[in-house]
Structure formats: structure tokens, C-alpha cells
């Protein structure tokens, strides 16, 4: 688990992809959009922009450290 508090805040949202697969994150975003389509409840607190309701995430681009073979994507 990446958190034991009430939720995932700004400092932990970048770790979500280490814990959950992309389809899981997409499902979580769809559920959130279903209950809060105008994103009035804690905007940007869990899912980073530009992942807005109805938008598709961009293509994955490797970080330079990963491209150099110094790190791997989980």
C-alpha cells in the first residue's frame, strides 16, 4: 500500500502507477468522473492533469534515466 491515511494526496499520486496498472487507473478515473463529472470534489488530488473526464492519456514516453538503462518501468 502507498498510503494509510484518508486518501492519496499530491505527494503520493505519482506512485499510483507503481501500485496499479493503467487499466485500473483508467477505471478509477471513470468511476470518479461518474460521481463528479464537473470535478468539483478535490480537483487534481488523486489523478494528475491532463487526465480529465473524457480525455485519453497521451502515449508513454520513457524518462531519460529509463532510456539510459539506469531505471526500469514497473
**Stretches with pLDDT under 50, minimum 5 residues:** none
Instruction: Return the structural class.
Output: mainly alpha
Which descriptor suits the 3D outline?
A: elongated
What percent of residues adopt helix (DSSP H or I)? 25-40%
Query: What's the domain count?
Result: 1
Q: Report how far the terminal alpha carbons are from each other.
A: 15 Å
Mean of pLDDT: 75
Largest sheet: none
Q: What Rg, in angstroms, do the CA atoms define?
A: 14 Å
Query: Strand percentage, roughly?
Result: under 5%
GO molecular function: flavin adenine dinucleotide binding; oxidoreductase activity
Pfam family, one: FAD-oxidase_C
InterPro entries: FAD-bd_oxidored_4_C (IPR004113), FAD-linked_Oxase-like_C (IPR016164), FAD-linked_OxidoTrans_Type4 (IPR051914), Vanillyl_alc_oxidase_C-sub2 (IPR016171)
Cofactor: FAD
Q: Can you characterise this structure?
A:
This protein has 74 residues and is an all-alpha fold. The chain has one domain (13-67). It is built from 3 helices and no strands. The radius of gyration is 14 Å and the shape is elongated.
List the helices and strands and how they pair.
Layout lengths: L15 H4 L2 H14 L28 H4 L7
Short description:
The protein is mainly α and 74 residues long. 30% of the residues lie in helices and 0% in strands.
Write a concise keyword list for the protein shown above:
Vanillyl_alc_oxidase_C-sub2, mainly alpha, 74 residues
Amino acid at each position: 500500500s502507498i498510503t494509510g491515511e484518508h486518501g492519496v494526496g499530491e505527494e503520493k499520486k505519482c506512485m499510483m502507477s507503481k501500485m496499479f496498472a493503467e487499466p485500473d487507473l483508467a477505471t478509477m478515473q471513470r468511476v470518479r468522473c461518474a460521481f463528479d463529472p464537473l470535478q468539483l470534489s478535490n480537483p487534481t488530488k488523486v489523478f494528475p492533469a491532463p487526465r480529465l473526464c473524457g480525455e485519453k492519456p497521451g502515449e508513454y514516453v520513457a524518462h531519460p534515466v529509463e532510456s539510459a538503462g539506469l531505471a526500469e518501468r514497473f
